[in-house]
Design goal:
Blueprint (H helix, E strand, L loop, with lengths): L3 H6 L7 E4 L3 E5 L9 E5 L11 H21 L4 E5 L10 E6 L18 H15 L9
Protein name: HIT family protein
GO molecular function: methyltransferase activity
Keywords: Methyltransferase, Transferase
Length: about 140
């Protein structure tokens, strides 16, 4: 059975994409720690990051670094947070989010999916895409 991320990647479920290539995709979290929270995900469904092919792991982190810079710029934050948790969806993913303090690294403070403002989520994705120069599907313009 496909993970929810595979369904998003395949277009079976909606997603606010900010980046996409043949190996890695990135889209907004539906339960963000802060607006601008992005999930960087390998296209191939692999549960644990420690099981990824080293080349895929490298590609995932290269994309994460670029998106981290964009998130930091788009939200004028002092840092881009980076977390690998791995318990909520059995598909490797890196959480990136704008942050200014350690206290913001707290999943118990994440917004519920139904508590986010759709217009603010759309704006967050657009701000990140503008810096990355990608379209609404995440592909380079």
């Amino acid at each position: 059975m496909s993970s929810v991320f595979t369904k998003i990647i395949n277009g079976e479920l909606p997603g606010r994409f900010v980046y996409r290539d043949d190996t890695v995709v990135a889209f907004l979290s539906i339960e963000p720690l802060r607006y601008g929270h992005v999930l960087v995900v390998p296209v191939d469904e692999v549960d644990r990051w420690t099981d990824l092919d080293p080349k895929v792991w490298g590609a995932l982190n290269e994309v994460a670094q670029n998106i981290g810079r964009a998130v930091k710029e788009a939200f004028d934050s002092s840092r881009a947070g980076y977390i690998i948790a791995g318990f909520d969806v059995p598909h490797t993913h890196i959480h990136l989010f704008p942050t200014d303090q350690m206290g913001e690294y707290d999943f118990s403070q994440a917004m519920a999916a139904d508590a986010t403002d759709p217009a603010t989520m759309d704006d967050a994705a657009a701000r990140i895409r503008a810096i990355l120069e990608t379209d609404e599907s995440g592909y380079p313009i």
